[in-house]
Amino acid sequence: MRKFDPPTPPEATAFLNARLIDPASGKDEPGGLLVRGGVIADLGAHLRRNAPDRATVIDCKGHVLCPGIIDMQVFTGEPGQEHRETLKTASQAAAAGGVTTMVVMPDTEPVIDQVALVDFIQRRARDNAVVNVHVMAAMTRGLKGQDMTEIGLLKRAGAIALTNGKSSVPNTRVMHNVLLYAKDFGALIAHHTEDPNLIDGAVMNAGEVATRLGLPASHKAAETIVLERDVRLVEITG
Questions:
Q1: Per-residue pLDDT reduced to its tens digit, 56-105
Q2: What whole-number distance in Å separates Cα of residue 76 and Cα of residue 105?
Q3: What span, in angstroms and rounded, lies between the C-alpha atoms of 31 and 148?
Q4: C-alpha to C-alpha distance for 81 and 100, rounded to whole angstroms
Q5: What is the number of other CB atoms lying within 10 angstroms of the CB of residue 162?
Q6: In terms of Cα–Cα distance, which of 57, 59, 42, 55 is closest to 9?
Q7: Which domains does the chain have, with CATH numbers?
């Protein structure tokens, strides 16, 4: 009978002396993590200082060890301002900070308000980025808050959500139509709720200090007014 050698166990790497954080379970404690063959095999306080035999040991020196972070608002220079930043350099910076997924905002030049630009971002990310990259497309053309974009086509092209970037949509009828179409196509809307007329020129929050210094200020109602409007629109559109 032919004799077979026992299978070689996968290589193990032990991350010791770490601060383990897991938002899903509420874990926040000192400990360690053991990886075998690219898969988490064990974790907890019992691995804080002791590693299994023949495991490669990495001393985390008290640094945080947690699941990859998702950055939901990444303002990159690509397309249009690659001299400032590209998807490649943005993803490298993200990876260095523990971010494994970036959601790119449409506030670029040109604005990501067309299917071709969504496809461009996805191809560039696939070829150059070192982390996962998703796209939020614009819900109004040029982010001007006036004309709605092709919500269904943008979602079909791969946009995970639609937004108006760092500005809100002041026109209630336009916002109503956006929510109506988003419902029909099953699209997610992420809206920056802030009344532009109440924040125009403001340099700080309204309050005693702003009054004493005589500085233009923005009241917190600038956000709640638009938020309340949008809640009513959601009730109307279902």
A1: 999 999 999 999 999 999 999 999 999 999 999 999 999 999 999 999 99
A2: 8
A3: 51
A4: 23
A5: 27
A6: 55
A7: 12-65 (2.30.40.10), 69-192 (3.20.20.140)
